[in-house]
Specification:
21% helix, alpha/beta, two-stranded antiparallel sheet
């Protein structure tokens, strides 16, 4: 599963863009389920910002280029109005406190916050109560996290 992250020149993500994303899909995890064309965006290539369109299919980048606008009629589109698209970040040290202490922050809230900040993958530390230090505990945690995570784990 993959996600896109859109950063404007003035704000990390603004209300207009959030509203556009919500029109396409109210749950970011579901973006991987159907094709999406990101139109009119900019990407960094070899030290320069270049205009392009990005086609996302099955949660991954399927194509990039200026000629993808012809696909608009066959896929959901999101006009990024010149915003810069960057790859997602990986946070290799998180404490999501679930299972055991989810009142401090669980997978649902913490992974959604991570995604809002551009983080698309996390590595949760095993110091929960009970700690995730055995294969059986890891299997249980994966079952618990699978329906709650907004990011890869």
């Amino acid at each position: 599963m993959g996600y896109f992250n859109c950063y404007g020149d003035k704000h990390l993500i603004d209300d207009k863009l959030l509203a556009a994303v919500e029109r396409v899909c109210d749950d970011p995890r579901a973006l991987a389920a159907f094709p999406l064309l990101l139109c009119n965006c900019r990407i960094e290539q070899k030290g320069c910002l270049n205009e392009c369109d990005i086609l996302i299919r099955d949660g991954f980048i399927a194509a990039m280029g200026r000629d993808l606008v012809t696909l608009k009629s066959s896929v959901s589109t999101l006009d990024l109005e010149g915003r810069i698209v960057l790859p997602g970040l990986i946070d290799c040290h998180v404490h999501f406190r679930e299972p055991g202490e989810s009142y401090k922050g669980g997978w649902l809230s913490e992974s959604r916050a991570a995604l809002a900040g551009g983080v698309t993958s996390v590595l949760d530390m095993p110091n929960n109560k009970p700690p995730t230090t055995t294969n059986a505990a890891l299997r249980r945690k994966r079952l618990l996290v699978g329906s709650k995570a907004f990011v890869d784990y």
